[in-house]
Amino acid sequence: xxxxxxxxxxxxxxxxxxxxxxxxxxxxxxxxxxxxxxxxxxxxxxxxxxxxxxxxxxxxxxxxxxxxxxxxxxxxxxxxxxxxxxxxxxxxxxxxxxxxxxxxxxxxxxxxxxxxxxxxxxxxxxxxxxxxxxxxxxxxxxxxxxxxxxxxxxxxxxxxxxxxxxxxxxxxxxxxxxxxxxxxxxxxxxxxxxxxxxxxxxxxxxxxxxxxxxxxxxxxxxxxxxxxxxxxxxxxxxxxxxxxxxxxxxxxxxxxxxxxxxxxxxxxxxxxxxxxxxxxxxxxxxxxxxxxxxxxxxxxxxxxxxxxxxxxxxxxxxxxxxxxxxxxxxxxxxxxxxxxxxxxxxxxxxxxxxxxxxxxxxxxxxxxxxxxxxxxxxxxxxxxxxxxxxxxxxxxxxxxxxxxxxxxxxxxxxxxxxxxxxxxxxxxxxxxxxxxxxxxxxxxxxxxxxxxxxxxxxxxxxxxxxxxxxxxxxxxxxxxxxxxxxxxxxxxxxxxxxxxxxxxxxxxxxxxxxxxxxxxxx
Length: 522
Hints:
mainly alpha; about 85% helix
């Protein structure tokens, strides 16, 4: 199946990026720990990332890819290229202005995003300085999203999926090679983010040329097509804004907690983002252009079949991952981060946050798979309404849980509200007849849950047997964790085949290249 091969391409590069991301975060934990410099950098990195996801990834991709795909299917490549160039001009000029305004207003912006830092002048000043360095990353990433949308619509997924690798390579190189000559490791990281953003943009611009879709920078004009894109983006931005508001609320509340809370949530977030990125984002990225082009060509039944199989693959990979994170959060955090200035107390606090986040992992992935079902039909209003309900629940839960549970309450609120979002999207797609839960999915889902539960029980027993090595020297801990991970994979694979949760012959066939698949494999 072309979707599985495309998702595998995105997932493979995402896995590489996440592995390098872990190396990066291991170094960050060793150099920065969970102190004031770390808190300041994580806020500085989250601010442009929040706007990136608001403007570039969520709203832009959801609005741009269906329209670009329509031009490709109905009018050909030249018409699609003209539309992309018109969009490029407006996007670049608008975000350049936004970047300049935010750079000037940064001290006031920081009072909004991290009000708790104001009580610590040093941390507050570092957050302002770091964010001024990292904020141009937004402009670069918005243009990266445009080029990625173009390439993904052409079924060329590799270049866009590989681009995030560059960020991690630059940050790792900076920490290893330039920390001694910088004022703080946070300054190295902030400069690295800016350099990596420019590098990713150059990488995808070249890839677009090689794909036969070079884009020129024109004078910005609000053409009818661009106006339509903006009209579609408004509810999309609001939807993405609601999701980002959840993160914003978490950061604001965490800034009011003792030093380290922002960092604990960051490190835990990085761990559960691995399966989310490799599975959810990979499948969602491949699914949107696939659904869009099928719907544009009138193949509605094929589109629904594709989404059902996407759900099956996503849950097959995500449910056992969530079960494993619930059972062994402590060993994972200890092995990955507990060294240098990142001590055992920080490790325990981060592991508690990871445990809470893990409850929501299947929901995060299901949202990524269900949302394209609306976006491909150019319906961005329904996801907005769902997201509004989600953010209301998240705010209420965060305010209720952060006092008795601290930063763990913030993570748990995120997980619970994500389940609400997933359930509402599922119900609405089913109600409108856009989601078919066929006999195969109905049969395999409970088997996936059963196989995952048995695997989790086996992992728990193995953890008790390996208590000594897991509490020993760093090398012994790493070997013990590797054994746990390998055992988890092996046990689940056997149980999935035995219970019928998956037929790996089918997965092998889906991943195998087929004659005529062409661009879908790229």
